[in-house]
Amino acid sequence: MLLTRKTSLPVSTSISVSICDKWMPPSIGWTKCNTDGAFDIISEANGAGYVMRDFSRKATFCASLVFEVFSAEEAEARFTWAVLKKALVQRLTHIIIESDVKSLIDQFSARNFEGNSRTDAIFKDIQFFSSKLVACIFTFQPRYCNSVAHEVAQWAKNNNSTMYWSTPPDWLLPTVEEDH
After folding, report:
1. Could you give the 3-state DSSP secondary structure of residue 48?
2. What span, in angstroms and rounded, lies between the C-alpha atoms of 100 and 104?
3. To 5 degrees, how large is the angle CA 105–CA 108–CA 112?
4. Residues of the chain with pLDDT under 50
5. Phi and psi angles of residue 11, each rounded to the nearest 5 degrees, phi first
6. Would you say 67 and 119 are in contact if contact means Cβ atoms under 8 Å apart?
7. Which of 27, 48, 61 has its CA nearest to residue 135?
8. What is the CA radius of gyration of the chain?
9. Which of 80, 135, 147, 156 could form a disulfide bond with 64, CB atoms 3.0-4.6 angstroms apart?
10. Separation of alpha carbons 62 and 14, rounded Å
11. Under DSSP, is residue 86 helix (H, G, I), strand (E, B) or coil?
């Protein structure tokens, strides 16, 4: 799904996105953000991770977050919210959000931002934040194309820790390097 508004930037607001067998960088002028949520239904331990990368494959921002959530879908939705909020703070204009939760991606791609009692306000914020960008694409990619975000999400869940990094932490560098 592509949300657009008029702009004077020389960057195309349409790009093709397809399911890949490995992580692929975005086109010049775009930022790709891979997200992943981790949720243990028994302990309710959770974490989410995201990694923003540019066309040169450089990780420009990473984050791990822990929320009070009751499902993996809710964790993913809260992290999509966090990604879009960060994109606005960083004044990004063109972003691709990749997730391995197909149902959520399909819902956002169809411009359906209706949620349940726990997610409705989050979904409305996602709609609002994404409308403030020149272009925002929500796309599904399987976990094996999303290993860096998965690693950050697992770290957040296992360490019960919210962290932000402008460059990947040392423990994540090998995963970033082998991801392409």
Report:
1. strand
2. 9
3. 135
4. 1-16
5. -100, 135
6. no
7. 27
8. 15
9. 156
10. 25
11. helix
Tokens of 148: 């860096």
Q: Rounded distance, CA 154 to CA 146, Å?
A: 12
The per-residue pLDDT of the chain, averaged, comes to: 84
Tokens of 48: 């989410």
Q: Which two tokens stand for residue 97?
A: 């959000």
Task: Specify which residues 33 forms β-bridges with.
Answer: 52, 97
Q: Where are the extended beta strands (E) located within the chain?
A: 2-4, 31-39, 46-53, 59-65, 94-99, 135-140, 163-165
Per-residue tokens: 70: 């009751």
According to the model, what pLDDT value does residue 20 have? Answer: 65
Do the beta carbons of residue 50 and residue 34 sit within 8 Å?
yes
pLDDT score, position 10: 43
Amino acid at 141: Q
Angle (CA) 74-110-123 rounded to 5° is 30
Place of tokens 């791609």: 109
pLDDT at 8: 37
Find the helix or strand (DSSP H, E) in which 131 lies: helix 120-131
